[in-house]
């Protein structure tokens, strides 16, 4: 989308003007939320689903990670009908991108955003795509690949870059979510993880996986990272984005 420079400048000027009026900014946010159903849903998630939601903002677009999607399709090429989970599927763009590469795949998309799930269902009538308003698969479901892309993060951390992530998204929630996802990944399956504010290697689950050599040249490595103590990891870089589950747990 191309923004009109004059409109952008006007909007910025209005924000500066409102910032000088006591109470104007909160009132403006309330008015926007009142008339924007998408913002209302984000507000609902932040306040009524705070203990379940991770990244409340549903921004995405078609074919967002082509290099990763291509690599995953190559690694699943010998699986007749691969089972894939898109965790935090938003509008279903990720599911549709995977479908183009793996037409026979059974793909489940999960999200807590009601509007996004409705949009995904409307845009994808393929019976092999299953969109659910949920934050976890069914207890007995197993997948050949699970993707958690731009989900295990939070916009506030990116904007404010605090020394500790504890008040926004603590490491414990990341590790617990990874452990839950791991229970649904079949031995020999794959975990795709990118745009996270934590390193997979720091979780107890990581001992059951090996990092794939894939490096995404179309995206920079992850650098805003927090450790198990919730503290900012200064100078840390995480280039790995794809992890292979071992067939047997290490001794």
Question: What are the main properties of this structure?
Answer:
7 strands, single chain, 7-stranded mixed beta sheet, alpha/beta, 251 residues
Indicate the topology:
Blueprint: H1 5-19, H2 24-35, H3 37-48, H4 66-75, E1 83-87, H5 93-101, E2 106-111, H6 114-123, E3 129-133, E4 143-149, H7 155-160, H8 171-182, E5 185-194, E6 209-211, E7 242-245
Parallel strand pairs: 1-2, 1-4, 2-3, 4-5
Antiparallel strand pairs: 5-7, 6-7
Helix pairs in contact: 2-3
Give the gist of this structure:
This protein is an alpha/beta fold. Helices cover 34% and strands 16% of the residues. It is built from eight helices and seven strands; from the N terminus they run ααααβαβαββααβββ.
Spatial extent as radius of gyration? 19 Å
Percent helix among the residues? 25-40%
Quickly count the helices.
8
Ends distance: 52 Å
Secondary structural class: alpha/beta
What is the global morphology?
Answer: globular
Low-confidence stretches: 27-31
The whole-number mean of residue pLDDT values reads 88
The total count of strands amounts to 7
| Side-by-side strand order of the widest sheet | 3-2-1-4-5-7-6
Tell me about the biggest sheet? 7 strands, mixed
Order of helices and strands: HHHHEHEHEEHHEEE
